[in-house]
Amino acid sequence: RNGPSLSIGTLRNYLIAINELARHCENTNLEFRELLADENKLWRFVESQNSGWIIQTLGSLLPHLTQNKFGFELVGEKFIQAIKTRGMQYRATLNQHSPIPTRIYSEIISQLTGFISTWNTVANDMLSIAKTCNDNPMAGRCLTNQIKIASTLGLPRVEHPTFSNILTKKCLDYFQTKKITQTVTGLSGVLTEAQLACKLTIQTFTGMRDDEAISLPYNCLKIQKINGIEHYIVLGRTTKLNNGKRKPTQWITNIDGYKAIKAAQQIAETIYSTFSIYKKDLESDATKYPLFASIGYLGLTGSRLKPENGKFRPNKIGLTRFPRLRKLLEPIITKHDISELESIDPHRAWRSEEHFQIGKLWRFTSHQLRRSLALYAQKSGLVSLPSLRRQLQHITNEMSLYYSRGSIYAKNFIDDKEHFGSAWQETKFESEGLSYILNVILSDDVLFGGHAQWVKNKVQGPNGTVVFDREQTIQQFKRGEIAYQETLLGGCTSTEPCKQSALKWINTDCIENGCRNLVCHSSKLDMVIAAQEKLVNSIDKNLVEYRTEKSDLDTLIKAREKAIRINSKG
Q1: Cα distance between residue 6 and residue 64, in whole Å
Q2: Contact between 338 and 349 (Cβ < 8 Å)
C-alpha cells in the first residue's frame, strides 16, 4: 500500500482472507474479479463464513485493494462499510484474554520451570547426539534407512550405529519417561519441544507477545549490575505501533527467564556450529541469528534447511504439535478457580462459557501469560497463594524497579503503549482495586485501623451488609484517589510515599499514631505477634535490642486487645 508498510502479521492475516476468497471462487465456479466486483456475490461469501475473524479481516483488507488499479471495478465504499460493521459485531462478542486462576497459574509456572530444569540435565548429551546425527547422515538411522541414504549419496554400505546405540543412559531415560519414539525424528521433536518450553517460560517472566518472543535474536541477554545485584534484561524487537517496521525494545526478567534463555542459546549454538558459526559470530550480528533457530537446519528429518543470504529463520513452535507439553499446562478446573475468576470480573458469565467448565481441562494460550503477569506481579496483595507469591516475588521486585511510574529506568524500557511495562502500569490500579475489595471491603477478618474504621462507617449498611459500587471503587483507584499496598499487618491506602520509619521489619508507629491509612487484619496481627514473641525470647534481656523489640511487642499486643474490645462492642 501507499504510505507506511504493513506489518508481517497483518500481511499474513490478509493472505488467509484471500485464501478463503479463492476457495469460495473455486467452490462456486467464480473468477476473482466477479466476486470482488459484485456486491450480491461477495455478500453471499460473507454470509457463508462461520468465522467472524475472516469477515473482520476482509473489512480491513478491502479498503487497501480499492486504492490500487486492478483493471476492474471493486465493490463500493458503502458496501465495504457494511462488511466492516459485520466484523465489528463479531469483535464485540469477543472477551478479553482471561487471567489464569492463581492455582493453575502456579502449576503452569512449576511445570515450565521444572521442564527447563529436567532438560538441563540431559541437554549436553542430547545436543551432542544431534550434532553426531547431523555430521553423519547415517548415524542414528535404522539399518534400512542407512542403506537407502548410502545409495542416494553414493556411499559404501557400511553399518553405522542405530539411534538406540548412540543414546546415553540419561537420554534413554528421558525418552522413556516422556514416551517419545527413540528415533532421529523423535530427537528433532525433543529439541523443538525444549525450544517451546523455553519460549513459554520467557513469555511467563517478561510479558512478551508470541511474535516478540519468537523473533528474539540469539544475543538477546544483557546483565546489569546495580549495587552488586545482577538484573537480567532481554533485548528484542517489536512490530507494534511502528508501521510494521522492526523497532528495538527490551524487557526485564528474573532468574527463571534467564535460565530459559541460556537453555535456548545452547540449542541455538549447536545448530549454528554445524555451519561453522560460533559464539563470537553470534554475538556480532543480532539480525541474522534468531534465538529459536529452526531445528530443520540440523537435517534430522527430511532435507536439511540452508540459510538464505546468511540469514536463518526461526522455528515454528506451537503447542498444537506437542500434546504432552500442553497436557502439563492444562490442569482440571475446580470450583475455586471459577470463583476466583468471578471475583476478578463478576460481570462476565464465566460458568456459561464452554472453556470455563468445572471438571474440564483449562484451555491454555500463551496470551494468558501476559494478562496474568500484569495482574499478579504487583505488590497489591491480590495473590494469596503462598507458592505463587514465591514464584513471582523476584519478577515483582524487578518490575517495580524498572517499570514503576517515576522509575529512572522506565523511560529506557517503556517507549510506547504496547510495551508490557505500560500494561503492567495500567493493570496496577486494577490489581490494587481488586485486592482492596477482596481484602478490605469483603474481608471476613476482624479489621481495625484508621481506614478500616472509615470503611466500617461508610460501607457497611444495615445488619452489617456491605454496600459499595464495585466499578466506582475501581475507577477511584484509576484516578489515583485511593491506593492499596499490602503490608505485614494488612494494608496501606495512602496515595503518597509512606512518611513512617522504614528501618523496622514491623512499623508499629502506624498503630501507635493511629494512621488514617492503616488497615490491620487481626489474623495477620496474630502471626506477627507470634513471630515477634519468638524474636524477643531469643534476645538477651540485658541488651538495648531486647528493650526495643519488647516495646514493639507490647504495642502489637495492646493493639490486639483494643481491636478485640471494639469488635465485641460492635
Answers
A1: 11
A2: no
Distance CA 224, CA 413 (A): 14
Chain centroid to CA 43: how far? Answer: 39
- Residue 483 falls in which region: left (phi positive, over 0), alpha (psi -120 to 50) or beta: beta
Alpha helices in 158-285 (DSSP H): 163-166, 169-177, 184-204, 210-214, 255-273, 279-282
Grid cell listed for 123 = 541437554
Cell of 266: 545452547
Query: Of 193, 232, 238, which Cα lies nearest the Cα of 215?
Result: 238
In whole angstroms, what is the distance from residue 61 CA to residue 456 CA? Answer: 56
Q: What does each C-alpha distance from 436 to 34, 140, 228, 393 come to in angstroms? A: 60, 60, 35, 20
H runs (alpha helix) in 414-482: 420-436, 450-458, 470-478
pTM exceeds 0.85, yes or no: no
Cell numbers found for residue 200: 513459554
- The side-by-side arrangement of strands in the sheet containing 221-226 is 221-226, 229-238, 247-253
Burial of 185 (0-12, 13-18, 19+ CB in 10 A): middle
What is the C-alpha to C-alpha distance for residues 92 and 52, in angstroms, rounded to an integer? 11
Alpha helix stretches (DSSP H) within 96-178: 102-135, 143-153, 163-166, 169-177
Residue pair 500/529 in contact by the 8 Å Cβ criterion: no
Do 346 and 322 touch, CB atoms closer than 8 A? no
pLDDT under 50: residue ranges of the chain: 501-503
Greatest CA separation for the chain: 98
* Contacts by 233-239, CB closer than 8 A, 24 or more apart: 234/202, 234/206, 234/208, 234/261, 235/286, 236/208, 236/212, 237/212, 238/209, 238/211, 238/212, 238/418, 238/419, 239/7, 239/8, 239/9, 239/211
- Is residue 124 classed exposed, middle or buried when 0-12, 13-18 and 19+ CB atoms within 10 A define those classes? middle
Q: At what angle do helices 335-344 and 102-135 cross, to 10 degrees?
A: 110
Quote the pLDDT of residue 201: 98
Which has the closest alpha carbon to 440: 482, 500, 475? Answer: 482
Tell me how far CA of residue 128 lies from CA of 182, 305, 317, 451, in angstroms.
Answer: 16, 19, 22, 62
Compute the distance between CA of residue 364 and CA of residue 370 in angstroms, rounded to an integer. Answer: 12
Q: How many CA atoms lie within 13 A of 249 on its CB side?
A: 28
Give CA–CA dist 192/322, Å, rounded: 9
